[in-house]
Design the sequence.
């Protein structure tokens, strides 16, 4: 639905065909909350046990709707007022209310500093609204108010005050007449002479004496137990804050036909004060407590802290027992009825959904009933807004501003930050809170220690206050629980900041350095086996280092820690498209390449790592990392010579990856069929060189998968002891492959364990090894062709050329078990083609051994560890054993 005319937009264009309306986008959930709470409130105050004078019972007559500046709280407050006052102003989708017509009196009070509302005006506004609706004096309150007025505004008629402040125009002049009538009635009740009866001091003095003496003549007011005390108290501002108790008492004794329930909407509550000056808040809270018959709907930027026991002494009524509805954390609204003691009365006014953003933009400006802002522009603005209504409003004004220049707005015009968002966000923050806000805008997420260190402060109090603001979102299950609203964050970092305490480029640079250092401190302080912390710190710090051209510092050690587990979580920050000419840029590309090689062709990995190395931006120890993984990628793509040269270069450098490179050289000897050299080398590798895995790779090729399985188990155990999850999974996948040759039943368990270890890892080659193990386990079973073809496709897509012969060997085992001579001949032909460069040539030998076939003429045999005949015999026995196993099952 739409509201009134949008005068600001209307006066921004000469085009009289443009219709500019104040668009109100549906806030169904908030209306449901207010409507349900009001229905429950009416049931409670009409129950026989309700006592308006009970000052000890807990209060559940407050709803708080809070959210970031510009989220639409004031618009919502106005719409709630209109909807409660007149069913005709209620959006159709809000539904029918559950209370009788005429019972509800909405009273909206804007507490914004610009509105100039003070405490006197707040109390007067409530009384004036009742005067206009009820149309009769409320003597207990009116006498106290008249006494206060004459003491604090001598010589100033209340009529003139109301006229000057605009309250008379809003509510009329019924109150002065009703106050005078109340004074006259009291004088008549007390039988005072006419002249005396017009002097409020004498009337109230006489009334107090009559109340104390319990005279029958004042029995109409005697039911208010605290009236005499309030009339005797010094008529100052503090006393005025207790007078609403008299107002509540008067409302409760109204005749049924006159009875109303005030719904008092206090808007812009953040302007009441701050966390250190609560004088006005204390007075307002007192009014809320003393008027339990009224439902209070408070809108502001922050949650109310009234249920916080730590505020005892600053406010009169505090703690969860006093305000049970304010004690619960924010939760999404549900249609579950709210009991009297329910929580959830503090609700975050959330961002618009994309469809609501589009509806808002379509309705704001139109011509001949059609949206003036086109579909493509609305889509761009909606995506950029993060659902913040203020951004939508500012974009509408920008749209009109661009049209005034004579050109049509284009989508690129709205890739724009508005400084007004900054001023709205910073408006009620202390200087320290602003400093923390700007500092954490550099971070994707943060906790209190990280925010404090990033801001360079010695105490956490500003950060503690900041996280209570509605533009700070909380994910209690995240590594760092807090993050800024997306649009607020991007605007603070990107917009032209014209505030008095704006930061210079040097300020932002120093803040980036502090945040970078703080992340390093958190990583060093945590357990170095905490993978989640490592990855989180790396992701944030890599972006800081790249965007602000920082030295690598602790990132070098963190990068080594990252690769040590072979887990490969996505880690690179989004690409900004900027120049890549720093060490941080190169490190981002290096780690991104190592991660993405699990999902792209290994030839692409070679190209990307070559680009990193050619740039020569990395320090020597990180260049070693790029060299080593390029050598691995060369091996995977079948480029053996380039792979060996890379391994040798890393091994000669004797750096952190030298043991791994020496393993690569040992494996190169194995690939060439020089098994004795590989076996000798394995004895010198140790854990760092993954000696057990190298031995396992040798043993199963010799036809001794049982020895290989034992070696792989030892390798997995070592990996688990060192906390290297990727290596443990890799050994387990190979163990499953070895066991699958001689014990299909045990292979089931080994394959299941491999899948468990791979569950949270991203290891493509290891996953394929596990699938090959399952193929070997099922050798001799029918209908394996589809699985074989799927694995061929996966290897081709991944560029894992070096694994293709192993898959063919598994196929040869299957065909040998089935005695499929023709199919096996085709497999042998493929193996000869795949191994013609010399690597894995012994797979031709093994496939021939499996089927009891002679070796091809001119074939060069490898150097078996105990000779060809023994090896041939073992491989043939594995086939015949499987055939016997399948025969026994039939």
Sequence:
């Amino acid at each position: 639905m739409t509201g009134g005319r949008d005068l600001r937009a209307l006066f921004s264009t000469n085009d009289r065909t443009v219709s500019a309306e104040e668009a109100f986008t549906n806030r169904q959930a908030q209306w449901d909350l207010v409507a349900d709470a009001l229905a429950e409130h009416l049931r409670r105050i009409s129950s026989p046990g309700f006592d308006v004078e009970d000052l000890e019972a807990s209060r559940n007559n407050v709803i708080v709707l809070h959210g970031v500046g510009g989220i639409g709280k004031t618009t919502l407050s106005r719409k709630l007022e209109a909807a409660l006052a007149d069913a005709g102003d209620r959006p159709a989708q809000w539904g029918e209310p559950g209370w009788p017509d005429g019972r509800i009196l909405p009273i909206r009070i804007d507490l914004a500093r610009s509105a100039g509302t003070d405490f006197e005006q707040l109390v007067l506004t409530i009384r004036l609204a009742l005067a206009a609706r009820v149309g009769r004096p409320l003597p207990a309150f009116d006498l106290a108010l008249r006494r206060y007025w004459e003491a604090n505004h001598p010589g100033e008629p209340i009529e003139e005050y109301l006229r000057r402040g605009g309250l008379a125009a809003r509510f009329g002049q019924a109150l002065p007449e009703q106050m005078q009538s109340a004074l006259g009635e009291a004088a008549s009740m007390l039988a005072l002479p006419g002249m005396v009866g017009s002097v409020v001091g004498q009337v109230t003095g006489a009334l107090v004496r009559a109340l104390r003496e319990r005279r029958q003549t004042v029995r109409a007011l005697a039911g208010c137990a605290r009236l005499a005390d309030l009339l005797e108290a010094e008529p100052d501002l503090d006393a005025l804050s207790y007078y609403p108790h008299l107002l509540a008492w008067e409302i409760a004794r109204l005749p049924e036909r006159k009875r109303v329930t005030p719904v008092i909407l206090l808007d812009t509550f953040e302007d009441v004060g701050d966390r250190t000056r609560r004088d006005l808040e204390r007075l307002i809270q007192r009014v809320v407590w003393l008027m339990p018959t009224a439902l209070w709907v408070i809108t502001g930027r922050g949650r109310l802290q009234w249920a916080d026991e730590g505020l005892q002494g600053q406010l009169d009524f505090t703690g969860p027992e006093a305000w049970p509805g304010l004690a619960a954390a924010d939760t999404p609204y549900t249609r579950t009825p709210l009991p009297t003691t329910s929580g959830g009365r503090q609700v975050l006014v959330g961002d618009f959904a994309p469809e609501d953003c589009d509806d808002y933009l379509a309705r704001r400006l139109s011509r001949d009933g059609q949206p003036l802002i086109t579909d493509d522009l609305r889509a761009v603005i909606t995506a950029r807004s993060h659902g913040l209504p203020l951004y939508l409003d500012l974009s509408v004004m920008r749209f009109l501003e661009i049209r005034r220049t004579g050109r049509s707005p284009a989508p690129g015009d709205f890739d724009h930050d508005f400084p007004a968002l900054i001023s709205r966000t910073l408006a009620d923050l202390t200087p320290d809170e602003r400093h923390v806000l700007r500092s954490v805008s550099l971070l994707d997420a943060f906790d209190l220690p990280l925010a404090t260190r990033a801001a360079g402060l010695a105490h956490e109090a500003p950060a503690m206050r900041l996280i209570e603001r509605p533009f700070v979102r909380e994910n209690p299950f995240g590594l760092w629980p807090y993050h800024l609203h997306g649009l607020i964050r991007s605007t603070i970092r990107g917009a032209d900041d014209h505030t008095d305490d704006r930061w210079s480029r040097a300020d932002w640079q120093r803040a980036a350095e502090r945040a970078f250092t703080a992340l390093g401190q958190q990583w060093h302080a945590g357990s170095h086996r905490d993978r989640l912390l490592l990855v989180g710190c790396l992701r944030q710090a890599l972006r800081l280092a790249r965007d602000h051209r920082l030295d690598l510092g602790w990132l070098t050690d963190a990068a080594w820690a990252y690769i040590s587990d072979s887990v490969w979580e996505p880690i690179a920050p989004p690409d900004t498209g900027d120049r890549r000419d720093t060490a941080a840029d190169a490190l981002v590309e290096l780690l991104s390449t190592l991660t993405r090689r699990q999902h792209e062709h290994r030839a692409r990995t070679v190209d990307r790592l070559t680009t990193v190395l050619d740039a020569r931006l990395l320090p020597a120890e990180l260049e070693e990392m790029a060299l080593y993984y390029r050598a691995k990628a060369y091996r995977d793509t079948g480029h053996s010579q380039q792979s060996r040269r890379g391994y040798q270069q890393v091994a000669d450098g004797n750096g952190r990856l030298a043991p791994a490179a020496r393993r690569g050289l040992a494996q190169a000897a194995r690939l060439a069929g020089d098994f004795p050299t590989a076996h000798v080398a394995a004895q010198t590798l140790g854990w760092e060189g993954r000696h057990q895995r190298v031995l396992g790779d040798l043993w199963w090729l010799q036809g001794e998968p049982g020895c290989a399985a034992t070696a792989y188990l030892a390798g997995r155990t070592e990996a688990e002891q060192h906390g290297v999850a990727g290596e443990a999974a890799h050994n387990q996948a190979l163990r499953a492959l070895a066991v699958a040759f001689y014990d299909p039943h045990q292979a089931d368990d080994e394959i299941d364990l491999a899948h468990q270890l791979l569950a949270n890892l991203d290891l493509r080659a290891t996953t394929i090894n596990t699938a090959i193990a399952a193929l070997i386990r099922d050798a001799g079973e029918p209908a394996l062709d589809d699985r074989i073809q799927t694995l061929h496709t996966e290897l081709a897509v991944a560029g894992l050329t070096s694994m293709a012969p192993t898959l063919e060997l598994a196929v040869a085992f299957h065909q040998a078990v089935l005695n499929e001579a023709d199919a096996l001949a085709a497999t042998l032909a493929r193996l000869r083609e795949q191994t013609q460069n010399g690597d894995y040539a012994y797979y031709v030998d093994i496939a021939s051994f499996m089927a009891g076939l002679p070796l091809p003429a001119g074939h060069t045999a490898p150097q078996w560890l105990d000779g060809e005949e023994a090896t041939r015999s073992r491989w043939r026995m594995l086939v015949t054993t499987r055939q016997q196993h399948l025969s026994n099952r039939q």
Summary: The mean pLDDT is 85. The first helix runs from residue 7 to 10. Residues 2-25+352-411 form one domain.
